[in-house]
Amino acid sequence: MLRAAVLFSCLLTLPVPAQADRVTIFAAASLKTALDAIEPGAEAATGHDLILVYAGTSALARQIAYGAPADIFISANPDWMDDLSERGLIRNDTRTDLLGNRIVLIGHGPGATVDMADAAAVRSLLGSERIAMAFVDAVPAGIYGKNALQDLGLWDEIAAQVVQTDNVRAALALVARGEARFGVTYATDAVADPSVTVLGTFPEDSHPPITYPIAALTTGAADVVLSYLAGPEAGAIFAQQGFTRPEASR
User: Fold this and answer.
1) Pairing of β 182-186 and β 131-134
2) Are 95 and 132 within one domain?
3) DSSP assignment letter at 40
C-alpha cells in the first residue's frame, strides 16, 4: 500500500502536456489562401487548434458585434476594427497592423496591361464589360476600389457595369469563371487564381493605405496564436502570397 501511495505521488509530480485550446480566427476573405497555408505550422508551433472563419470584413465585424465567439479578428481595413474597439469588444492592447496590400484590375484569361494612372486608357479597356467588385459601400476591397476609380474620374461612368459581391473572393470567382470580364481585387487575390491576369495596379495615392489590423478578443491561447501570426514564420508565407508588412509599405 505504501509503495502504491509513493508511486501515485510520483505520478502527480510528472509534467503534464499543456491542453490544446481551440482558437477561432475571424479573417477577411482575402486572407484565405495565406492563412490556410499558415495553419499547419501555427498549430504545430503553438499547440493550439485553429478554426478559420472567412467572410467579408463587414460581415465578420457585425457577427462579432452580435456575439459570435471569435478569439482573434483580422480586418481588411481599420474602420471595422475601430468600430469593435468603440464597442469594447477587442483587446486594444493586442491590436497591431499586421499586413499591407495593393488594389489591382484583373481580367479573365490573358490580357494586355494598362497604365492605371491613364484614365482614358482604362476607360477604353473596360468598354461596356461587366466589372466584379466586393460591395463598394461595405467591404474594404470594394471601398478601396471605388475610391481608386473615383480618383481616376471613372466611377460615375462605369458604376452601372459593376457587379457587387459579398466579399472579394466572390468577385475573383466571377472573373475566374468568365462571368465578369474584369474585376477589382487585391493583388494577393490575383496571385491565388491562375485563370486571371493582373492588368494593372492602381496608384497607391488613389485610395487610402490598405492595412490589415489584427487584435485578440480573448486571453490565453489567443495571445500565443496572435504572436505567431505576427512572427517571421507566418510572415514568410504572407510575403509569398504578395502581402507586405506595413513597415515595408511605407
Assistant:
1) parallel
2) no
3) H
Are 59 and 31 part of one and the same domain? yes
Per-residue pLDDT of the chain (250 residues; tens, 9 = 90+): 434 343 334 433 333 334 568 999 999 999 999 999 999 999 999 999 999 999 999 999 999 999 999 999 999 999 999 999 999 999 999 999 999 999 999 999 888 899 999 999 999 999 999 999 999 999 999 999 999 999 999 999 999 999 999 999 999 999 999 999 999 999 999 988 899 999 999 999 999 999 999 999 999 999 999 999 999 999 999 999 999 988 643 3
From residue 139, alpha-carbon distances to 50, 93, 101, 153, 187 in Å are 24, 25, 15, 21, 16
Which has the closest alpha carbon to 189: 240, 119, 242, 111? 242
Contact between 164 and 136 (Cβ < 8 Å): yes
Q: Per the domain annotation, does 250 fall within a domain?
A: no
Residues of the domain holding 134: 103-206
Maximum Cα–Cα distance across the chain: 92
The answer to whether residues 28 and 84 belong to one domain is yes
Is 115 in the same domain as 192? yes
Same domain, 224 and 178: no
CB-hemisphere CA count at 13 Å for 200? 20
State the DSSP H helix or E strand holding residue 98, giving kind and residue range, or none if neither.
strand 96-100
Cα separation, 246 vs 156, whole angstroms = 32
* pTM tops 0.85, yes or no: no
Cβ neighbours, 10 Å, residue 5: 9
> Long-range pairs for 80-83 at CB < 8 Å and ≥24 separation?
80/140, 81/213, 81/215
